[in-house]
Design a protein that fits this description.
Blueprint: E1 2-3, H1 5-23, H2 38-60, E2 68-69, H3 77-100, H4 102-116, H5 121-142
Antiparallel strand pairs: 1-2
Length: 157
């Protein structure tokens, strides 16, 4: 799907404005010139500036570039199925992660994605296993993100 730059610029500007509104309530740190709103505020301001520039560019090119156009992949059943599997995997993670745990859920999601994208099954198993373990290690051990253990609670490390 292709969007005119003005449409995408409007979305970026709205996102930046929403962040700027949300950070107004962030507390200040006494005795500090900067607070927790500084970095999100800078990013939001950048989004707003980039959005306005994209809106201007899109409006200048509106004769040559349509507001909205479908890409060729949309007519491909295989690619449409891959999109459905991707969106379904997000819903599956939300529902199953606490029950199954991160490791089995991530492995199942990666396997589904690899298989729908026609990755050879043995390669899919190997890459899904290694990727799941690497992501778990990075988030659980290094970044201390509390990932759910689910069925594996008894063997958690």
């Amino acid at each position: 799907m292709k969007l005119n730059d003005a449409v995408f610029g409007l979305l970026l500007t709205l996102l930046g404005a929403a962040v700027l509104v949300a950070i107004r309530g962030y507390p200040t740190i006494p005795g500090q010139p900067v607070g927790p709103a500084l970095f999100p505020g800078l990013l939001a301001t950048g989004l707003c500036v980039a959005g306005v520039l994209l809106i201007a560019k899109g409006l200048r090119q509106r004769g040559a570039q349509p507001w909205f156009a479908w890409d060729d992949w949309v007519r491909s059943p295989r690619h449409a199925l891959a999109l459905v599997v991707l969106l379904g995997s997000v819903m599956f993670y939300i529902v199953a992660a606490d029950i199954l745990g991160f490791l089995p859920t991530a492995f199942i999601i990666l396997m589904a994605m690899f298989l729908v994208l026609r990755v050879r099954p043995m390669v899919a198993v190997a890459v899904a296993l290694v990727a799941t373990l690497l992501v778990h290690t990075a988030f659980y051990k290094l970044l201390k993100v509390p990932l759910p253990w689910g069925l594996l609670t008894g063997v958690s490390w």
